[in-house]
Amino acid sequence: MEIGVWGQTNERWMAEGAPPQPGMFIKGNSYFGLDGVDDACLNTVMPLPPFSDRVIEETDETVLFTDGLGRTRMALKTGTVGGTRMSMDHYIKHYVTDRKSWREMRQRYKGDPAARYPQDWDKVIARLKGVDTPRCLLSAYGDFGFYSMLRNWFGTEGLSYMFYDDPVLIHECLEFLCDHIIRLLERPFREMTFDFMWIHEDLAGKGGPLIGPKLFREFILPHYKRYLHFIKAHGVEVVLVDTDGDFEVLIPEFLEAGVDGFNPMEVASGMDPVGMRKKYGNSFCMVGGIDKREIAKGKKEIDQEVAKIAPLVHAGGYIPWIDHAIPPDISLTNFQYYLEQKRKVIFGE
Q1: Rounded Cα distance, 52 and 50, in Å
Q2: Angle at CA of residue 277, ends 276 and 282, nearest 5°
Q3: What is the DSSP letter of 331?
Q4: pLDDT digits over 55-93, tens only?
Q5: Which phi and psi (to 5°) does residue 66 adopt?
Q6: Cα dist. 211→277, 285, 330 in Å?
Q7: In DSSP terms, which residues pair with 122 in a beta bridge?
Q8: Contact, 277 vs 320, CB < 8 A?
Q9: Are 236 and 261 in contact (CB under 8 A)?
Q10: Which of 349, 292, 291, 281 shows the shortest CA–CA distance to 316?
Q11: Which helix (H) or strand (E) holds 315?
């Protein structure tokens, strides 16, 4: 398995002889011979109705706009390929700033759950019952998460202050979010059993998480416990948290909540899977952990990187893939060579 590519990487690989590739590989890829998963998606994240997407100002290099979550963002147009920008957007303003705006936002999540399901939902379930790939409830590309939803509403800075300025409001938001997600997932769990789920948080950077263990334990952990109890009571065997960066200080809280593993294990942020396994043993599984910087360099570095993770592959509880979307400094030749060496480790060739 692999995660996916930047639009700029796709453009480079096409110039180097590959056919056009989808942005994500998680559902498999026939050209590269990658395995995949299948998923059943519904709208757990966006308000209904969404806010209007509106361009406020545009230049040759940037665009200032509002999005469906009511956020005001500045995006870099220069270098954009296939929807992939060369830098993250600058988030200027978020919709929820106080209790009044929270009540307004909350109303957009209170409607009929049926409105959040795709029109062909029955066909989705029928198809999933016939597949032999791992079945994921919610998007395999990342979906609902508690911190990530709060950040969508308040923004990182606004949320960081609100934990202290109005903690009662944050408790109310989290209680509502837990009710919201459980209410939405009752139907799919009635209809079939799923193998695994991802919780999308993206709550850390190289310097550590955006929320510390004390606040996580006080505000978020109780709702994680309730949510994971609900999920696992319906037969889901593996729950993974999707977060970038160095989240190590939160590992005890995640494990207490019932989380089984993590992705993408970014080596540049210190989340080296070999070091994590030595330190934590088999207390959690991992996906990712192949240093993208080494894959870009050449065959010698690729050999060393793949050899490093071989013992983890053989021990189990680990799926190696490049630690986040594949950037354009990785050539097609290097990527194909990396896949060849990884297959030798996995299949014992």
Answers
A1: 6
A2: 125
A3: -
A4: 999 999 999 999 999 999 999 999 988 888 988 999 999
A5: -105, 150
A6: 24, 23, 32
A7: none
A8: no
A9: no
A10: 281
A11: helix 299-315
User: Cα dist. 133→37, 233, 324 in Å?
Assistant: 5, 22, 22
Strand order from edge to edge, sheet including 62-66: 54-58, 62-66, 72-76, 90-93
In CATH terms, the fold of domain 7-49+95-347 is TIM Barrel (3.20.20)
Domain range list for the chain: 7-49+95-347, 52-94
Contacts of 112 (CB under 8 A, 6+ apart): none
Own/partner long-range contacts of 165-170 (Cβ < 8 Å, ≥24 apart): 166/99, 167/219, 169/99, 169/102, 170/219
Work out the end-to-end distance of the chain between its first and last CA atoms, rounded to an integer number of angstroms. 17
Global pTM value: 0.95
Nearest to 113 by CA among 105, 102, 121: 121
| Tokens representing residue 104 in the block | 């307004």
Q: Per-residue confidence at 195, pLDDT binned at 50, 70, 90?
A: very high
What does the pLDDT read at residue 239? 97
pLDDT, position 140: 78
- Structure-block tokens of residue 145: 């998460």
- Residues 106-120: pLDDT tens digits? 999 999 999 999 999
Burial 165-175 (b: 16+ CB within 10 A, else e): eeeebbeebbe
For the residues 166-194, what does the mean pLDDT come to? Answer: 97
Task: Read off the pLDDT of residues 271-306 as tens digits, 9 standing for 90 and up.
Answer: 999 999 999 999 999 999 999 999 999 999 999 999
Residue 141 above 80 pLDDT? no
